[in-house]
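Input sequence (319 aa), recorded before submission:
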Amino acid sequence: MIFDHGGRVLTIDQREHQQIYPKPGWVEHDPLEIWKRTQEVIAGGLEKSGIHPKDIAAIGVTNQRETTILWDKKTGNPVCNAIVWQDTRTDVICNELEKQGGQDRFRKKTGLPLATYFSGPKLKWMLDYLPGVRAKAEKGELLFGNIDTWIIWNLTGGEHVTDVTNASRTMLMNLNTLEWESEILKLMDIPKNMLPRICSSSEIYGYVKTDSIPSLQGIPVCGDLGDQQAALFGQACTTAGEAKNTYGTGCFMLLHTGEKPVSSKSGLLTTLGYKIGDQKAVYALEGSIAITGALVQWLRDNLGLIEKSAEVEALARTV
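Predicted structure, token format:
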């Protein structure tokens, strides 16, 4: 998407990418396909708008949170497909961790219950179950990131960063210090040197340095927010007590709670809302329904009830 200074959308381009289901409960994406699609939509957006690339002031990234990628620092090749947020293969890891301190053993520090949803257990699964991966990680040869980190690393020619909102979804970041939590890294046996640097949601992380997108060379990459937090900020929920609800693959409600983390008595997650530059971090409570938009794809691709996603409304109205 390209916006003007008033926040108006000047152009939009989008492409689907493949959903990979190798086993029941497993959901994967191809990180190289995501990077390819990113390049395509950048080119498509510029072409549709007729805007000269030199007129682009800055680039921001928003992404599916928790989707976990591990890649080789030298070659840039992923060690396997990305493990997507809905994937449940880490249930054994979460159950083992739960035995020693209950589902909420990390909640005080991270705001999150033990669940298959978050990136930390997914990363642990890759280290524990993929041959040779742990040895390479311990030698400092591999890098971890959610989709934002992967895209920024490719855009900037190697800046390994994430923002507080994405880091807060790993189950590895301390909500109060906004730093990686050593005690949890030790418990999950995750080497700290593979984790990205945690930044604010709005600062210059680096400049475009990739031959894949020559037209944008030198433009600063300076925005990074997980998708639901981006929606909270984008819909101008900038005051404590304001909330947003958005519908995508899943459905997510976020409530702005101010500059201190608030614990929920009703099963909501405590998470980062956003952090603008040197300003104090803003926190949020979050509730989610895992499958909403993904159900429409399932009706189309798995059941064959519809040929195009848009047909679902007319079908729904018949009942």
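Checked by second reader. Residues 24 and 288 are 22 Å apart (CA to CA).
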